[in-house]
Design a protein that fits this description.
Length: about 250
């Protein structure tokens, strides 16, 4: 399986380069509050979310299901967690969004599709063909971390969506983990995939947890700076993504 790990190391290296680029260049992914018209053709926001997350929902489970791995309880558990997350993100999240008429650039949709195809392949192939999964103390610890992350992510997303329902303008979110950070939904998502990596305990899922942080930390810092510039009364003690740290 040398070829697989060679590609996976290249994938992680690309993730590190992407992170450094996003941190040190002035590039901000142009969707949501950072949308602008300079990134070419746009598509309806809700369809954009559906199309960019669909490869993740499909690719990883299909690769595992057609793989030689025995479809035992731990494999079913891991697949269920994945589908639980991606069914929500692909189908329910876009339906819940209150951003009527909002657009996102097709280039964002295509790059997210490509990310989800590669990520789904790496995670699915390693689980289906290489990793020997078993229940252990890591399963329990990982599950607690995964569901804690999922709770933080979804409750924070729900709060933001309900703010948008009440008012067309951006507001300062209050309560819950917003007391500590500007983007608790991103913090929750990072925690969630760390939990998943602890359950599965292989390089593919670790690379996904790293990629999630590589994507969401720079975006969370952009959001945080945007809040500070937009609202004069923005709470000073609030950090960007990781409570008490940054
Ligand atoms: P945002 O926090 O930017 O936006 C979420 C929704 O809430 C949008 O509809 C947004 O509207 C609205 N919103 C945000 N802030 C406010 C506010 N202050 N007042 C009113 N409405 C607000 O999240 P993203 O769109 O970037 O991401 C959505 C989800 O996808 C998150 O849970 C994130 O963790 C996940 N994600 C995961 C990635 C990964 O690599 N695993 C990558 C990207 C996202 P608007 O669109 O108009 O700004």
């Amino acid at each position: 399986m040398g070829w697989f790990y060679n590609f996976l190391f290249i994938w992680i290296f690309i993730g590190i380069c992407t992170f450094l680029y996003l941190m040190f260049s002035k590039t901000i992914a142009p969707y949501g509050r950072h949308s602008n018209s300079e990134w070419g053709i746009t598509i309806d926001n809700k369809w954009g979310w559906f199309l960019m997350e669909l490869p993740a929902l499909v690719v990883m489970p299909v690769i595992v299901l057609i793989s030689p791995a025995e479809k035992n309880e731990i494999i079913i558990l891991v697949l269920s967690l994945w589908v639980l997350h991606y069914f929500y993100r692909t189908i329910l999240f876009p339906i819940k969004l209150k951003t009527k008429g909002k657009k996102m650039p097709v280039v964002i949709v295509i790059s997210a599709c490509i990310f989800n195809l590669f990520n789904g392949f790496f995670v699915g192939y390693e689980i289906g063909n290489i990793t020997q999964l078993d229940f252990g103390i890591n399963t329990l610890i990982g599950l607690i971390i995964f569901f804690t992350g999922m709770y933080i992510n979804r409750s924070s997303d729900n709060k933001l969506i309900s703010l948008r329902r009440e008012n067309k303008e951006y507001q300062i979110p209050q309560g819950g983990m917003f007391k500590y950070v500007s983007c608790p939904n991103y913090f929750g998502e990072i925690i969630e995939w760390i939990g998943f990596a602890i359950i599965v305990f292989n390089l593919g899922t670790l690379s996904f947890a790293l990629w999630t942080a590589f994507n969401l930390i720079p975006r969370g810092l952009n959001h945080h700076n945007w809040y500070i510039n937009y609202f004069k009364e923005y709470p000073e003690k609030r950090k960007a993504v990781i409570p008490y740290i940054f």
